[in-house]
Structure formats: structure tokens, C-alpha cells
Amino acid sequence: MISLTSEVRTPYHRWWAGPKLLGLCLFTVATFYLDTPLSTGAVLAVLALGYLICGLRFARQGLRLLRPLIWVCMIIMGYHIAIRDIADGAVVCLRLAAAVAAANLVTLTTRLEDMLDVLERLFTRLHVSPRIRRRIALAIALVIRFIPELTRKGGTLIEAWRARSTKKFSWKLLLPFALLALDDAEQVAEALKARGGVE
């Protein structure tokens, strides 16, 4: 199964998945209590240092995973510029970048199997039925599995557009991208059905 775990070995790979996931939850909650560009920027700088400690190759992987945020942050900043509240817009964008960067750091350094094992133990303690546990674990695995696959197919669509047109790619690519995603979902559903479905 494809996952987002980095092939670059780092000290973070040796940390247990449970504490990392708990730390990520606490960090994300704490980040959204920061209310100035300086404090949120400082947190993001510490995260950047955490990536750089593991080498430039690992840091570049983390930076590539932040690219989808560019358009989101542009929309957020455009709105806040329109209402003349640039400082709050900067805080929102920096909070979002810090939360996603921290999540990427955990994902890049934690095996999917280890994360699912943590969830399995948590559901067991919460007395969630085995049937529901299996379904949740499968859903999480499929989401993580298809993130890089859909990203790759989206990039292929953009490259095809650029090869056939001098215009910048537009919203018109959303329909073929959605059709590709639906086709993948249908194939996975058929494969699960052929194997007996999800109990």
C-alpha cells in the first residue's frame, strides 16, 4: 500500500506513533489560540527548523506537501485584504500552514500501520465494536492511499492542459478530475465487493 511515509530516515521515525499523534492534537489546538502574526510566524519557524534538522531533502519533501495551501491562503488573504484586515488574514494563513506542516511531519515519519494500530487500541478502550473499527481503519487507509494518487493524476491533467493550450489551467479541469476520482472509487468498490465486501 502506498503511504506518505518518507523514505528519508530521521530521528522522528523512532518516536512512538501514539505520543506523536497526541502531540499533534495538542499542538493543533494550541496553535489556534495564537492571535498575532509574530507568534504564529515563530511557531512556523520552529517547525521549519524541525524539518531542516533532518536535512534539506526531507525539508523539500515537507515544502512540496504545503503547495496545495498556496491557493487556499491566496483566497483567505484576498478576502481579508478586501475587508482591510490584513493582520487577521496573516494569522489565519500562518495557523493553517503550521497545523498542516505539523500534520505532514507526523505523517512523513510514521508508518500507516503504526497509526492504525494506535487507533485500534483507542477504539478498543472506548469499547467500539470490531465491525465499526474495521470500517474506520479501512476508510483512513483508503484516504491516505489515494492522496498521493489523486495528486499525481491532478498533476497529469495540468500537464496535459499546458501541452494543448497556452492559457493557464482553469476550473474546467475540475470536471475531468472529479470523473477520475469517481472512476477510482468505483474500481475500489468493485474490488472490495469481489473480495466479500466490508464486514
Automatic annotation (TrEMBL):
<dbReference type="Pfam" id="PF02361">
    <property type="entry name" value="CbiQ"/>
</dbReference>
<dbReference type="InterPro" id="IPR003339">
    <property type="entry name" value="ABC/ECF_trnsptr_transmembrane"/>
</dbReference>
<feature type="transmembrane region" description="Helical">
    <location>
        <begin position="40"/>
        <end position="58"/>
    </location>
</feature>
<keyword id="KW-0472">Membrane</keyword>
<comment type="similarity">
    <text>Belongs to the CbiQ family.</text>
</comment>
<keyword id="KW-0812">Transmembrane</keyword>
<dbReference type="GO" id="GO:0005886">
    <property type="term" value="C:plasma membrane"/>
</dbReference>
<feature type="transmembrane region" description="Helical">
    <location>
        <begin position="65"/>
        <end position="83"/>
    </location>
</feature>
<keyword id="KW-1133">Transmembrane helix</keyword>
<feature type="transmembrane region" description="Helical">
    <location>
        <begin position="12"/>
        <end position="34"/>
    </location>
</feature>
<protein>
    <submittedName>
        <fullName>Energy-coupling factor transporter transmembrane protein BioN</fullName>
    </submittedName>
</protein>
<feature type="transmembrane region" description="Helical">
    <location>
        <begin position="89"/>
        <end position="108"/>
    </location>
</feature>
